[in-house]
Amino acid sequence: MIRTFATHTIRKQRELTNSFWNFTPCQGEKKGTIYKVVTPSCWENHPEFTNYRGEAEYSKKFEAEGNIRLEFKGVSHTATIFLDGKEIAKHYNAYTNFSVIAKNLTRKEHTLTIRADNRFSAYSALHIPNDYMSYGGINRPVVLEELKENIYLSYIHVTPYQENNIWKAKIEICIENISEKEICTCVKATLAGKTILWENTKIAGNTKLIVNAIEEFEMVETWTTKHPKLYYIYAYLIQNNKIVDDLIERFGFREVKILGKNILFNGERLKIKGLCRHEDHPQFGCALPYEAMAADLELIKHLGANSIRTSHYPNDERFLDLCDEQGILIWEENHARGLSEENMKNPNFEPQAEQVIKEMILAHYNHPSIYIWGILNECASDSAYGKECYQKQFALIKQLDPSRPHSFASCKFKTDLSFGLPDVISYNIYPLWYHDTEPEEYIDDLYQWIQKETEGSGKPFLITEIGAGGIYGYRHPSHVKWTEEYQAEALEKQLTAVQNYPDCIGVYIWQFCDIRVSDEWFHVRPRTMNNKGIVDEYRRPKLCYDIVKKLFEKM
Ligand code: ADA
Fold first, then answer.
1. What is the pTM of this model?
2. Residues in Cβ contact with 502 at an 8 Å cutoff, skipping those fewer than 6 apart
3. 378 lines ligand 1 (CB under 6 A)
4. Which residues, listed in sequence order, are joined to residue 341 by a DSSP beta bridge?
5. DSSP letter at 519?
6. Which residues, in sequence order, are bridge partners of residue 99?
7. Cβ proximity of 359 and 314 under 8 Å
8. Dihedral pair phi/psi, residue 218, rounded to 5°
9. Residue range 108-146, pLDDT digits in tens
10. What is the residue with the minimal CA distance to atom 7 of ligand 1?
11. Which atom of ligand 1 is nearest to the CA of 469?
């Protein structure tokens, strides 16, 4: 499955994944040995490559001719793409889409080769040994599209907003001309009963052009968590009275604003009861199939949660599609976790982090479930240099999408220097786990400091992580740390404290499920896993599950 809805009916599109590929490692004792593996997948889930850190090549033959567009939804973590042996693209980061056009193919069998590299090095500023696993492989779908002409619809962005209690939407449609010469075309879009035409649209050779319009919609239904009403926009390119290309996108009429200490969602105060979730599974690594994502969402809804934080990277579009359809709000963030000032001074850090922001917003702009953009989880926001990086990335977000608030999750207690930058002040705190402070006292102490000593005063205040470790099946009358009993008791006190703190607009529990972490973290993570899930890696509920459910239902 590429998306949960068809994005084309005219443009020919097929998924090259969801089938066997030839796979061969480029290093190690199995170098050159060819295996047949199904993708999307992580090679760590193959019995011979559970700890392989290196390069590997996937190859697949396909028939096509003319101009083709190849889209890669995720390759972990660095991809080099070859078509018929010639390098045509390179991309860094496992969690964002990239695409490439190949022109004038002759009709025959072609070979697509993807070299994936999951090694850690100075080249990789974001994928580093960490408290989650950087896997290797083709972790999300690969899509082949055949373009009829030298011009195609590249993307559509729809920005809904209210004016005098009437829904309006700004529509932007990007067309790309991949030929050398100017092309004149007609663009047509239909959405929510409206039709818009941009006739005699001229696009110079090898350029992109964005056409836009603003439309009013009297009789549409608002997208809410209880009633997640979705609409489609159909865009067409028309040449000589013939449709030569199309693109379908999906959106919802909803609006997010900041008012004082609150986030307003369609004018109502938002109260977050959420979970942080890694894309991680013992059988699939980070390449969860659609059915596994849907099963996670069943548990998340059963718990009474209304939001997911995509810790700590942009998520699979199909998961976002599911959240759009089920009314689960998303805090989506670029890819970074716990980078020190030294890490952030890697010359690759800023370009790589900013590229993830560009690719994340470009691809995920229309998801109504995303209500906020996050960046740089627990990075060096307590340093002057770090603050500059945050500043640049927040400016980039506002430039790409002024319609959503932004934030970052801090762990810097009373040393953060960057609270003048975000729209929302967010904290990761672990009272009763990393320090034995009572949660109420800790939250109030922190909140008062923010109001009295920082530029975050008066902004919405959100707890983006709180929790404790509990090893599934470890029960003990002492209720010591790591027992399921301790985790349940800690979470009960933590969530009750958050619930009773009027100036806190909500909470994300750390975390939904137990996850694999880098081997280098073995000394601080029993089982070389992060065991703070409220379900274990096989999604088996721990003792705290029912307590979280009870408390979320009261929120
Ligand atoms: C941090 C971090 C999480 C995880 C957590 C923990 O808050 O943001 O990724 O590492 O700590 O388990 O300690």
1. 0.98
2. none
3. yes
4. none
5. G
6. 71
7. yes
8. -75, -45
9. 999 999 999 999 999 999 999 999 999 999 999 999 999
10. 428
11. 12
